[in-house]
Amino acid sequence: MIFLKTFNNSAALVQDDQGEEQVVLGKGVGFGLKKGDKIDESKIERRFIANSHQDEVNQVKEINASTIDLTNKVIQMVEPLLNVKFNDFQYLALADHIDFAFSRTEDNIDISAANTRWEVKNLFPKEYKISEKVIALINKEMNVNLPVSESIFMTYHFVNAASDNDQVQETVEITELIGGNY
Question: Among residues of the chain, what percentage have pLDDT more than 90?
Answer without folding.
Answer: 23
